[in-house]
Specification:
Elements: E1 2-13, E2 16-27, E3 31-35, H1 42-49, E4 56-59, H2 66-72, E5 73-76, H3 88-93, H4 108-120, H5 136-149, E6 154-158, H6 166-181, E7 185-189, H7 193-199, E8 202-207, E9 210-215, H8 217-220, H9 223-230, E10 232-239, E11 242-250
Parallel strand pairs: 3-7, 3-8, 5-6, 6-7
Antiparallel strand pairs: 1-2, 1-4, 8-9, 10-11
This protein binds adenosine-5'-triphosphate.
Adenosine-5'-triphosphate binds next to β2 and α1.
Length: 252
Amino acid sequence: MSLLSLTDLTVRRGTRTALDGVSLTVGVGECVGLIGPNGAGKTTLMRAALGLLPATGTSTLAALPLAERARIAAWMPQTREIAWPVSVETAIALGRLPHLPRGARPGALDRAAIDAAIVRMELEDYRTRTATRLSGGEQARVLIARALAQDTPLFMADEPIAGLDPAHQIATMKVFADLAREGRSVIVSLHDLGLAARHCTRLVMLQAGRLVADGPPAEVLTRENVERVFGVTAYYETTPQGPVFQPMEVVR
Ligand SMILES: Nc1ncnc2c1ncn2[C@@H]1O[C@H](COP(=O)(O)OP(=O)(O)OP(=O)(O)O)[C@@H](O)[C@H]1O
């Protein structure tokens, strides 16, 4: 079963083609890492897939009515500042809005989803803190938890682990891998190719708006692809502790 299918998705921004004829299908249980250099089109792909940007081609998700879309896909955008000085718990509870009839208060099911998200993101000690008074990385974790509380079959996030410390980067990637193992689908953009190699089941590589590679990490992060697309050499080894990928030198 697929939750998201894109066909020939193309986005023009001014005179530039930000996304150029991308087709892909994301199945249940996949943790897809969206990789590519700055400006490659990662954000554009996700926003167009969600129907947040005008595009040509098709996205099965963008075709759905807004309310239904919010019950199928959770979205954590790249801008991660929390605007209102509410408690962490209240900020996370906002993730339940798509499930609540207008004006209804959260019920037992909502509370359970909120609590599960708080535990998953290790935010138990932060519940009553004011969300706007957290550090950048802490606010990012709250926003990931808000998206998790939405409890959708598809979870999409734009550079969710940027700015997190190493332990929280690893823990958060493990949360995404766990979601996939539980039968959900995850699409995350990220620049850390080492974490992408270790925790994603599939990588989609973009360059100048085009999809240039799509498959298991070892098939996408080849020496040729990494040099051509990112302009770096890399050390890539399969170890007993899993794959290790480390960018080494700039080649261009
Ligand atoms: N509002 C805009 N107007 C015009 N062009 C834009 C706009 N936003 C993005 N672009 C262009 O679209 C292309 C793709 O941008 P996008 O933000 O999708 O890249 P990205 O892969 O997410 O990059 P990054 O890793 O830097 O976040 C870039 O060439 C960018 O300059």
